[in-house]
Amino acid sequence: MRPARLAALLIALPLLAAAAPPVIPGNAAIDAEATRLMAAAQAQGLAVAVIDDGQVVHAGAYGKRNAAGEPLLPDTVMYGASLTKAVFGYWVMQLVEEGKLDLDRPLAAYLDRPLPEYSGFLTSYSWQHLAGDERWRRLTTRMLLTHSSGFANFAFLEPDRRLRMHFDPGTRYAYSGEGLILLQFVLERGLGQDVGAEVQRRVFTPLGMTRTSLKWRADFRPNLADGWRENGSVEPHDERSKVRVAGSMDTTIADMAKMAAGYINGTGLSPAGLKALTAPHLPITTATQFPTLQPELPPAKRRPDLAAGLGVIVFGGPQGPGFYKGGHNDSTGNTWVCVKASKRCVVILANDVRAERAFPQLVRFILGETGVPWGWEYGAMDFLR
Fold it and tell me: Which of 78, 79, 129, 329 yields a CA-CA distance of 20 to 30 A from 60?
């Protein structure tokens, strides 16, 4: 990584005077509030981890892991959803620091032939639809990690299921799992990286995350969480047989506590590498995160302290700069929030999507007011108080 060039590409966020962090409640109080909010949200399962000064101080699980009523435990395997993206970004920064990857080198330079000539990587379609649009040659690692590729979230969401670029890459934020899949392909094809094995070797194993993987493991089955949808129906846990860095990780709250502590401490990274992950690389200019390709707000209506980091969202707040990452599907709600100055984090994994209504209040109860952009993340959701 080139520090001078990196600094030049970061954006300046407003400087806010940081308040002293509040006292973190004791474990019994956290357990009681998590249980109360889970019930108020009519959710069946919820797990919470807390990191203070870079150390794990709490990891608890509440409710059920399946329709049979078996308890959700700290070592129950749950779906990580898009928290996978933040873990992937963490490993990518290790490659950058080792000189194997450059954040700003066009990805085309790592491939032995043009991208539209490849097909058959994790999807039923190919990148051939990009033929004739030479903008794909401008794509870089930084653009894909900051969701500024120009792609929709996934090509299968396009009306004709054809991948296309909706804007010049690097010019604005628009959430795209498709971009992360492309970066995975480049790392595997162009750099010869076995992404699943390398993330296991470089991240999960050093951090002691023994029940976490980017693809399904049979030993997860005896203690596995199914999910609940908004209508209360049960969704069996998906046994994802392929590594997909956009969201294939299975994990536990005990393991994610270790991940959050390792991340906030920068384990395996230099101070400059850790700073780059959670620095503001690209302004966020939309009212909400979804739909992906919504119009940008007029400058006067944008939140000036909100920006994309490398796999996370960064923001300013009353306790100083922070970052977070969410994860969601029809039966899963996850969030991971950190305050940088105090090295405090809260991780919430929920195997019931209805629990998302409780996230702002539970994070606020533990960390105090942080400035997390809940409205941008979830839109007009009716949050619990």
Answer: 329
